[in-house]
Backbone:
């Protein structure tokens, strides 16, 4: 698929690094597992590409367990990874209550564990995060700058996911700071396919709430669904979308003539995948990446994309170098993927 090739091409933005320093002995012949709750969507495809690239650069044997948004299945897969004796486990999204006891069991068994955007509630497990508070803040500041402080707003949200809950906390703060931001409808789902399921909900919400002028959708699959609904209802010129996360497909959707999707804040998902593996590699090498490993986001507007003629993730990194690389979980011995 063209968009996936472009996402993978984002990796070309990172400099080639030779193996000047020897890898720590703790990384020899290690097997790691990625146990992922959610896999549908551009972000997660690109994240997986980053995980694979960094694992290959460090000569780590990787196996992917895909729960496909099934909490019970993710729990079973985590149990499988423990029983199969992996040296390290990377948890990607999911529900705390579904995985925290199994994650603790893995730690007790001597397995190194890191978690991306899921809180395992264990001090021994580093949390890899986009700075979700900053993601939400950047998008909401742009929302207010563009539209003022008095408006009726639709909000796409699903509770139970730590990244969305962190973004929701900032949204709640903004509503207190700007009491004229009136949330008139809240909706959202992660049922497959996410964008289409959200579109069905958004269509009903828009019919019931014709005063909505802005939709805050702090996950790009939510934003895609809102866009579908607005275009089908002929409201693309009347309602603006502000979101979080970014991909080549998102860039293309934002740049479409008359697109209602005007701004998003995001990190490079390829980089997020690489950082996750780097943090796990540090644990395997006996080093501490820190309790929280944060990757800072970037604000991306439709105006910027059009003015700079940015058409994909590779070009976005070229125009915004801070987007192309995160210098976190990156000790001197770390080998980055060859680009």
Residues:
């Amino acid at each position: 698929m063209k968009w996936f090739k472009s996402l993978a091409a984002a990796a070309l933005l990172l400099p080639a690094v030779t193996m000047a320093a020897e890898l720590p002995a703790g990384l020899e012949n290690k097997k790691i597992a990625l146990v992922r709750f959610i896999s549908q969507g551009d972000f997660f495809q690109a994240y997986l590409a980053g995980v694979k690239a960094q694992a290959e650069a460090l000569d780590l044997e990787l196996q992917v367990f895909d729960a496909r948004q099934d909490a019970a299945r993710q729990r079973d897969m985590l149990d499988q990874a423990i029983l199969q004796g992996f040296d390290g486990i990377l948890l990607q999204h999911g529900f705390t209550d579904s995985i925290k006891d199994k994650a603790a069991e893995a730690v007790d068994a001597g397995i190194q564990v890191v978690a991306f955007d899921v809180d395992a509630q264990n001090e021994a497990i580093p949390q890899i995060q986009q700075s979700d508070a900053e993601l939400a803040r950047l998008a909401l500041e742009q929302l207010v700058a563009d539209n003022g402080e008095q408006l009726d707003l639709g909000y796409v949200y699903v509770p139970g996911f730590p990244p969305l809950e962190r973004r929701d906390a900032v949204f709640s703060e903004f509503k207190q700071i700007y009491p004229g931001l009136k949330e008139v409808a809240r909706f959202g789902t992660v049922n497959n396919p996410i964008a289409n399921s959200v579109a069905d909900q958004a269509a009903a919400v828009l019919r019931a709430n014709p005063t909505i002028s802005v939709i805050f959708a702090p996950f790009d699959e939510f934003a895609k669904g809102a866009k579908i609904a607005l275009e089908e209802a002929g409201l693309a010129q009347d309602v603006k979308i502000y979101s979080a996360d970014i991909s080549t497909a998102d860039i293309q959707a934002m740049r479409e003539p008359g697109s209602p999707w005007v701004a998003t804040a995001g990190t490079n998902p390829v980089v997020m995948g690489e950082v996750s593996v780097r943090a796990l590699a540090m644990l395997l090498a006996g080093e501490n990446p820190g309790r929280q490993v944060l990757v800072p986001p970037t604000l991306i507007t439709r105006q910027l994309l059009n003015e700079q003629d940015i058409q994909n993730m590779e070009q976005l990194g070229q125009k915004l170098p801070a987007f192309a690389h995160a210098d976190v979980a990156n000790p001197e011995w770390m080998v980055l993927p060859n680009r």
In short: The chain has a mean pLDDT of 92. The first strand starts at residue 31 and ends at 36. The CA atoms of residues 132 and 166 lie 6 Å apart. Residues 42-57 form the longest helix (16 residues).
